[in-house]
Design a protein that fits this description.
This protein is mainly beta and 136 residues long. The protein contains no helices and eleven strands. It has a single domain, classed as Immunoglobulin-like (Sandwich), CATH 2.60.40. The strands form two sheets. Strands 1, 2, 3, 4, 5, 8 and 9 form a seven-stranded antiparallel sheet that branches. Strands 7-6-10-11 form a four-stranded antiparallel sheet, with no helix packed on it.
Length: 136
């Protein structure tokens, strides 16, 4: 399968108690396509340093949203994708749908992360839109 990705966004959460690196993208072949959010470096500040997400203190993506269109046709529209990330990195993804052929795909994505460790601390990944010319 082939992937196309946005630039990586480096974002701190409320009060700078949490941090993450976020990359949106599409993964596809001639039969199917899905949207994803890659999370890297999910960290929290405690004591005198930064610590990574763990199974005891996971980062929680709650929610991520993905909208993908081809022309005027919406092919992916998922607004409540949720996942716990028990490691510093992980992937959150939409369901897979039929690939609509070689075309320009418009993809909008956003997410909210809580934690790691500081469960009440929110990190917002603002909505952004990309256009990808795909060829399977």
């Amino acid at each position: 399968m082939t992937e196309v990705k946005s630039d990586t966004r480096r974002i701190y959460g409320d009060g700078r108690w949490t941090y993450g690196e976020f990359t949106f993208g599409l993964r596809y072949n001639a039969e199917s396509i899905y949207a994803f959010l890659d999370v890297a470096e999910a960290q929290y500040f405690w004591g005198a340093g930064w610590w990574y997400a763990t199974t005891k203190y996971p980062a929680k993506i709650s929610p991520a949203s993905f909208t993908v269109t081809v022309g005027r046709q919406v092919i992916i529209d998922e607004t409540e994708v949720r996942k716990d990330l028990p490691h510093p990195s992980g992937r959150v993804q939409s369901g897979s749908v039929m690939y609509w052929g070689d075309a320009t795909y418009t993809f909008s994505g956003a997410a909210v992360m809580f934690g790691p460790y500081w469960e009440e601390t929110r990190l917002v990944v603002p909505s952004e839109t990309w256009r990808f010319d795909l060829k399977a």
